[in-house]
Specification:
Number of helices: 5
Family: Belongs to the short-chain dehydrogenases/reductases (SDR) family.
Keywords: Oxidoreductase
Distance between the termini: 35 Å
Structural class: mainly alpha
CATH class of one domain: Alpha Beta
Protein name: NAD(P)-binding protein
Helix content: 40-55%
Radius of gyration: 16 Å
Order of helices and strands: HEHEHEHEH
GO molecular function: oxidoreductase activity
């Protein structure tokens, strides 16, 4: 729901438009349509697209749609996530899926992005080993790519 709320906030704030993306095309289209109803500007445009952020070709297709529709990308917010299961019930497929979305997906989107990192990136908790590990990976990508502000207290200065 974080990505949906961000799309709504952009619409309400007067953005030119938003591209809403989800692994499910119908979910992305629904959010795009709902954001139009909240738009501060009558010229606001919204489009929904299906994307698998763990797949480079899918990410590039999403970028192509954004560029065709809006001419440029000013901001890209990655708020993708997947449900997780307790560690003792975790399969190799669960591991692949969580890392595909949270780590590989973030890597593929990292050229022009705002990373939404869970508080779990800074700690740990029970029954969320995969999610926490993937969030730590996302924090590492964010730090290593220089995406954190120099004024951010979590940034390690080298």
């Amino acid at each position: 729901g974080i990505g949906k709320e961000i799309a709504f906030a952009f619409a309400e704030a007067g953005a030119k438009g938003v591209l809403c993306a989800d692994i499910k095309d119908d979910a992305a289209t629904k959010i795009a349509k709902e954001s139009k109803g909240l738009a501060a500007s009558p010229k606001f445009e919204a489009v929904g697209v299906a994307v698998d952020i763990a797949n480079a070709h899918s990410v590039q297709s999403m970028v192509d749609v954004a560029l065709k529709k809006f001419g440029r990308i000013d901001c890209l917010v990655n708020a993708a996530g997947v449900p997780v299961v307790p560690f003792h019930m975790t399969s190799e497929e669960d591991f692949r899926r969580v890392f595909g979305v949270n780590a590989r997906g973030s890597f593929l989107l990292s050229k022009a992005i705002i990373h939404v990192v869970s508080a779990m990136a800074f700690g740990a908790g029970p029954c969320k080993v995969l999610y926490i590990t993937a969030q730590h990976a996302l924090l590492g990508i964010t730090r290593a790519s220089g995406k954190l502000s120099k004024h951010d207290s979590t940034t390690t200065q080298w």
